[in-house]
Amino acid sequence: MSPSGPPAVLRPPASLGVIGGGQLGRMFLQAAQRMGYRAGVLSASDDAPAAQVAHWSVVAPSDHLPALRAFADRAEAVTVEFENVSAPALRWLARRRPVRPGWRTVWVSQNRIREKSFLTRHRIPHAPWHLVRTGDDLEAAVEAVGLPLILKTASSGYDGKGQVRVDRARDATAAWSSLGHVACVAEGWVDFQAEVSVVVARGRDGQAVTYPVGQNRHDRHILDSTVMPAAVGPIIAQEARRLALTVSQALGTVGVLTVEFFLTAEGRLLINELAPRPHNSGHLTIEAAVSSQFEQQVRALCGLPLGMTNLVSPAAMVNVLGDLWTGGEPDWEAALRADPGVKLHLYGKRTPSTGRKMGHLTVLDPDPEAALARALAARAALKPRVARTRVVTGRG
Ligand code: AMP
């Protein structure tokens, strides 16, 4: 960075870099490339989904100093595709290049204790929780949040990993043991009628835009489908979008941030989780919104004006998990033939495994529930064609 700081706006064909080689990085790179940027990745593997489409790659773990140096040499501005990037590495990079979102947003959202402390401090509604670092904390947590509760490891949890539900006080110790006695949050069980999320993009000037609310359904703790707009009333929708803006402002985020909520049986919105990046529930914005969540990530990173978030049509997205390979390669043609409105996205992952996100399908339809029914029907049509691919179990 020059002593006068980074240029206010990075124009194409500047070189942008993303930390992380997964599908979110891939879709960021594709959006950047469409806008004329050169776009590369810091990835642990040269065959990762993002590395496959990158103009350039640095292959190394994200906290490897020589690799960070090589990355900073090539990337004029840096973003992330996952939250588990070491905060010191981001701080190191931020002294050399604009890093958006900044390390603080990433640092808060990569650890559930920091995330919940942040929400508590800012009086932003969330489920009751209690910190667990010792056996005494665990006892106090059962008292404080009641039963059932859900124990979640403070860090490294995703897609329901590192979580155990506790129904009886006498099971709490065993549940914590099964998580390796690491620092956890104990969260009160939320009786929710729906799970919804809001993707918010915030620029350097503090201007922010939100997408319509997405309604998410999970299967085995993994996102299964999203419908946008969610079937919630206008007051709930407005409140969810307002809360997402409040969070992005309180964090000072520059970039894209996703806020996941529970809508309780009584109609209250409680924040479940923050992700400092585009989110699986926003993938349908690629086709369904004027500007996709990935394009907003590019715009915010480069200091460009943010794009419109309006939907061109209601839409639904269903995930395509590795489980679909159990009997062989899924029959892509069958799904596309059955419904020409189906949009297929595959991430280029070579090894399908149970629960692994391999791709997704999006359908636009004036009726959001019809969009979901069509997307689900297309996925059902993906019955395997040839029984030859081996599915590895147990890899996320
Ligand atoms: P998380 O990784 O925290 O988003 O949790 C994954 C999924 O587990 C959520 O999307 C919910 O379906 C479920 N879940 C997590 N926390 C709770 C809770 N406190 N009460 C009820 N269900 C929960």
Rg for CA atoms: 21 Å
Number of spatially distinct domains: 3
Helical coverage, percent range: 25-40%
Biggest sheet descriptor: 9 strands, antiparallel
Count of extended strands: 19
Distance between the termini: 38 Å
Overall mean confidence score, pLDDT? 94
Task: List the ligand species.
Answer: adenosine monophosphate
What is the name of the CATH topology of the largest domain?
Answer: D-amino Acid Aminotransferase, Chain A, domain 1
Low-confidence stretches: none
What's the tally of helices? 13
CATH 4th-level superfamily of the largest domain: ATP-grasp fold, B domain
* Principal-axes shape call: globular
Level-1 CATH class name of the largest domain: Alpha Beta
Please state the structural category. Answer: alpha+beta
CATH architecture verdict of the largest domain: 2-Layer Sandwich
**How much of the sequence is in beta strands?**
25-35%
